[in-house]
Amino acid sequence: MQHLLSIPSLIIFILIFETLKSGVAPNKLMLINPRDQMGETATNKMIEMDYKVVKSAFYASSLKEKLQIKSWDDQQSVEDIFSEWLK
Asked: What is residue 41's three-state secondary structure?
């Protein structure tokens, strides 16, 4: 069976695609602890597969630096997660 995109990644792709289609570059996007359809934290393999289309939209437009997908664990502070992204 072929792997299908999860609903969240599909929605993000549609929003990015519509933005690119209108000729306006997408804003910064940070995904923190993406979840699978069961509400569990997505594995790195799942993130690579499910968000491949989202990443390609940013990469094709030379906007790789505007997309970040991060995991946030209990040892990290808010500053650890957001400080680089907010610059």
From this structure: strand
- Judge residue 36's burial from the number of C-beta atoms within 10 Å of its C-beta, 0-12 exposed, 13-18 middle, 19 or more buried: middle
State pTM to two decimals.
0.59
Whether the CB-CB separation of 21 and 59 falls below 8 Å is answered with no
Exposure string for 5-29, b = 16+ CB within 10 A, e = fewer: bbebbeebbeebeeebeeeeebeeb
DSSP of 9-36: HHHHHHHHHHHHHTT-----EEEES-B-
pLDDT per residue as tens digits for the range 36-81:
778 888 888 888 888 887 788 787 777 788 888 888 888 888 888 8
Per-residue tokens: 84? 């680089």
Distance CA 47, CA 6 (A): 10
